[in-house]
Amino acid sequence: MHSPTPTDTLAADSTDPLGRERSHLAASRAALKAMREDVEALDLRDVAGTWVSAQVLQKQVDERIKALADLAHTPLFFGRLDYLHAISEAASEGSGGERFYIGRRHVHDAGGDPMVIDWRAPVSQPFYRASRTEPLDVAKRRRFGYTGGELTAYEDENLSDPDEADTGSALLAAEIEKPRVGPMRDIVATIQPEQDEIVRADVTGTICVQGAPGTGKTAVGLHRVAYLLYAHRERLARTGTLVVGPNRSFLQYIEQVLPALGELDVAQATVQELVGHVEVRGTDSAETARIKGDARMARVLRNAVRAGITLPTEPCTVVRGSRRWRVPAYELEEIVRELMDREIRYGAALEALPQRIAHAVLVKMEQGGEAPDDRVQDAVARNAAVKATVKACWPAVDPVKLVHRLLGDAEFLAAAADGILDAGEQAALRWARPPRSARTAPWSAADAVLIDEAADLVHRTPSLGHVVVDEAQDLSPMQYRAVGRRCTTGSATVLGDLAQGTTPWATGSWQEALHHLGKDGAHVEELTQGFRVPGEVIAYASRLLPAIAPGLAPATSVRDLPGSLVLRHVPDGLDDAVLDACREALRHEGSVGLIAADARVPALASALAAAGLPHLDPGTETTADARLTLVPASLAKGLEYDHVVLDEPAAIVSGEPDHRTGLRRLYVSLTRAVSGLTVLHAQPLPTELD
């Protein structure tokens, strides 16, 4: 196979621009292959001093090989910047402008010269930020179009040419509207200026993104993780990063985005997985879950954890050899009170107390003419008398057993909740039949969060460098606290939409949420321009906003697709009509989602099976042969499909504990479509949609 030479490239550029770009793509792929082969050929036997270091080095090499993988259907570069002036140190003086290809990862040739620049590098930023009013020294911005991994088109914007008309990018629109088959796609080729500002925000600050449906807030958050790992790799490799999603189906849906950007080591978890101290086997009523998620529970738990602290009334006498050393009760009380006043973690105080008592003994030894050292203090701290005093004054606390007692012992709960929760709220918290042990308790998801809070009161939760929390509007104050504990010394990216809050405890404002997260004063950015949901669809769904989130501005859309919304009243034979709508949607390219109230899903699953229409569960990757997913409305949040068939809106609304939550669930369901939405109903539509 002929490899293009510099002469070939120059000739092709003047006579065949597309051929020249294809040649550069082929050469870049060859260079990436050579980079990977160089890593695969490394011999670690002479550089690894021990077996442990050899394993560490081999793991790093394996990760590097994975990062250098060439994904056949993922373009290696998607854009090009032609600068007016040289900007790199390697460029010779007076050499004029420079050209850079922008892609998902850095690729260099055998001499070390860049062939593709990572989209996260500073030199790539003007690809997203440059405009005709602020060209940022860019003469030309070129976008590339691909079909099945092959470069098939390009499009130029001469940003420094005042005579060129300012028209929209057809390739950009085509990339945004490309059918969705498979997991969530990255948006690195289509990032908009307002999104890029969020992506590249400083690692030390927390940012909150209020994003209407289709504005790309989830993708922006994931690309922010990829950018931060690029710009602050050493720092975040040491402290760790985490993406928190609403459920496992959602995490499976997004999990391919970061690997496509070359990032493999980002942990993903639901809040429930973060607080997995116990097995969740029970459920709570909406009211009980709301109370357990209330921030006041943090004060109740603090009182419960410290309830066992008792001021000493007896002295502590330590016998060493023939001598007895006595610490009077008033001195012990001073030590205990000081630890109480310092507000340190309960477990840290428990570890410090025997040492403080031992120190008081050593002072008396020194006053008695002895010269004890640190070993003597440690021995005294382990003395039986000191241990007995500590156990009596500051007993050990097991977080699981503590919450078990709190929910099962009315007197203990009343003492801890005095002045915080009223009698009715306390009654709602208590188990009707207290279980005999913590092991057999019917723990609920909200209980696990309470246990996590208690555990942090005893021992500090380790903090990560950066945490991204998506669909954050649905977290309770106590869940916010659980996430916030994971980034007390780091930063966070908070993503959500107040209009899509579908839990009884959904947050009322981002300021309130950020307070519970421990990030008061964080910047809140609002994204209202949609790139996914067609304008006709988002306008229809926005009719619900006055009822579900009156403070939010309706979203707009850059995509005008006439006929993208179909409303169909079906007085009889709704199931058959739904099947027909699914068949019609499957005639189009891309993925299809059938969204229905949770209670309707079993009947629809049976109908699909009887009709010979195979369907997938949410989170399962679609393929060319299996493109229909049956989605319970409770799991629709965060997902997207080219075509959506929405079954019986009234059933979705009535399936929730209150009307507003039901309307919010409907709002979510209405805004999952990328190309077309068909709404079928036998019952009247909610009046808010009129």
TrEMBL record:
InterPro entries tied to this protein: DNA_helicase_UvrD/REP (IPR000212), P-loop_NTPase (IPR027417), UvrD-like_ATP-bd (IPR014016)
Record bears the keyword Cytoplasm: no
Gene3D superfamilies for this protein: P-loop containing nucleotide triphosphate hydrolases (3.40.50.300)
Positions of region (Disordered): 1-21
UvrD-like helicase ATP-binding domain span: 190-534
Keywords linked to the UniProt accession: ATP-binding, Helicase, Hydrolase, Nucleotide-binding
Residues binding ATP: 211-218
Keyword Hydrolase: yes
Protein known as: HelD family protein
